[in-house]
Specification:
The protein has helices spanning about 5-10, 65-75, 80-85; strands at about 20-30, 35-40, 50, 90-99. By secondary structure, the protein is α+β, with helices and mostly antiparallel strands.
Length: about 100
């Protein structure tokens, strides 16, 4: 069974440090189990910015207005909503690191 299928049927328990300044989310794609990261970094004014690293966020094919939705959910510290939005695309969340 592929890593993507394992994560889709049995998602991991994820937690983010309270008042995290940076959150790095590792995802596994349905296409050949490719691994990519999404980074959310808090700016000086307290808002999060979203980056796909070397990949465009459109590669995850998330549903809806995902950039705005990810930023708002992260600003509200609603990490379960952030993970749900990411999982609507062609990749699933495998792990999370925060500081």
């Amino acid at each position: 069974m592929s890593k993507y299928r394992e994560l889709k049927f049995k998602p991991p328990v994820l937690s983010v440090n309270e008042n995290a300044r940076e959150v790095i989310i590792t995802t596994v794609s349905c296409m050949c189990d490719n691994i990519h990261t999404i980074k959310l970094k808090k700016s000086e004014n307290g808002d999060f910015s979203v980056s796909g690293g070397r990949s465009s966020l459109s590669n995850w094919q998330m549903k809806g207005d995902y950039i705005t939705d990810l930023k708002w959910a992260a600003d509200d510290q609603n990490w379960s909503e952030v993970f749900r939005i990411i999982n609507t695309g062609t990749a699933v969340v495998a792990s999370v690191r925060s500081r």
